[in-house]
Specification:
2 copies of one chain form a homodimer. The first copy, chain A, has 202 residues and is mainly alpha-helical. Chain A is built from 9 helices and no strands. The longest helix of chain A is centred in the last third of the chain and has 28 residues, at 148-175. Chain A is globular, with a radius of gyration of 19 Å. The structure holds a DNA duplex (30 and 30 nucleotides).
DNA sequence: CTGTTAACTTGCCGATGTCAAGTTGTCACT
DNA sequence: AGTGACAACTTGACATCGGCAAGTTAACAG
């Protein structure tokens, strides 16, 4: 049995600590040394495993895409109707954003992540594939005349934009004196509009 | 005539320098001291005017929303048909993202900007209002049965998501062996899909 | 028991953000 | 014109940061 030094799996412990720090203090106040402190190791230990602060964050982003891939797959497999699957994927996506805020803050941040990392790219592609496959099913099952990639991209962009603008939208509702809208409800309404769009396409 | 110290308007010179640094080195490698260096002032001068690194970036973000408000208004005023106006606003938005990348990197970044800043909030609201007014015109002119705020939010989310995912989408096209798609073209296709959606809503 | 290698630690460097205290222009008022 | 007040900076200091280099310790193979 391996019991190397302090942890059984320091890389993972460092990811957990990083997640904690980002969730608490935000990505702007993120520091490698604080991560090391929380994991109970020296300040240079993270660099040994991840080489770089980018390396650690890239690893966290990769983990995020893997989780995204898993939860969207599971959500999709619970529904049989393709359009319901699309809604389920959207809901799973925003649920992930709520449950793993740290990961989501990192996953699409081109400037803090190593875009040339192979594992990150693979995980991202697999997650994209889940959405794309569902849209493909929807198109073929209803014999729609829309472009697969274009529609997939619109769905993804709308979800991504929603996740990012969420606090701003909530604040707007408040300012405009509108009743608060749940994010799940927002996703459902978005999907409804988009579905109408692709269905009426000629 | 005012000629205080070195510059006629140091706050603005600092914003320009900040824009330059962010565009060149990215927000991750942004540093107040480098901004001061480029503006030819001491390292603490920025803090005097903006109090904080957040203050400077918040000011930049506010400027970004003001420009966004201006260019979308102008773009909208050049078209008479509401649906064409919507497309024009989208195109103006992505054009802004291309022309002022530094501003756009900052405008929606909750973690680096002071969300409680009044001027920032005002500018953001005005920019949102341009889009909302256009959607309202569209709804009333075609007598559509969709919710104004919901539709506005979908448009904004899709645009916002597109701006953020743009590099990833381009990379995906490359990986999947698809021909490259211009971002203006993406916006046009998105708008088309969304328009179909709102028009066929019952 | 010894050698090798991976998993860390310790120490150091230049750079950064921010605070406190000085310094220097500028303008209002007499 | 002279004087005070005030704004616009500068200078200096401090804790902290990321990353590198060199040392130290643990585990395992032979």
């Amino acid at each position: 049995m391996h019991t190397p030094y302090h942890h059984g799996d320091l890389p993972n412990a460092l990811r957990r600590a990083a997640e904690e720090v980002i969730t608490e203090k935000g990505l702007g106040n993120f520091s490698l040394r604080e991560v090391a402190r929380r994991a109970g190791v020296s300040h240079a230990a993270p660099c040994h495993h991840f080489g770089d602060v980018r390396g650690l964050l890239t690893s966290l982003a990769t983990e995020g895409f893997e989780v995204l891939c898993r939860v969207t797959s599971e959500a999709a497999s619970r529904e049989t109707d393709p359009s319901e699957r699309l809604v389920a994927i959207g809901e799973a996506y925003v649920a992930l954003a709520a449950q793993y805020p740290a990961h989501c803050q990192v996953m699409f941040r081109v400037d803090v992540v190593d875009q040339s990392d192979q594992r990150l790219m693979d995980a991202g592609l697999r997650a994209y594939g889940v959405l794309r496959d569902t849209v493909a099913d929807l198109i073929s099952s209803e014999n729609l005349k829309v472009d697969l990639d274009n529609t997939t991209n619109l769905c993804w962009s709308a979800m991504q934009g929603l996740v990012e603008l969420q606090p701003k939208l909530d604040h707007l509702d408040e300012l405009l004196g509108r009743p608060a809208v749940d994010t799940r409800e927002r996703i459902r309404r978005f999907t409804e509009l988009i579905l109408n769009g692709v269905r009426s396409h000629v």
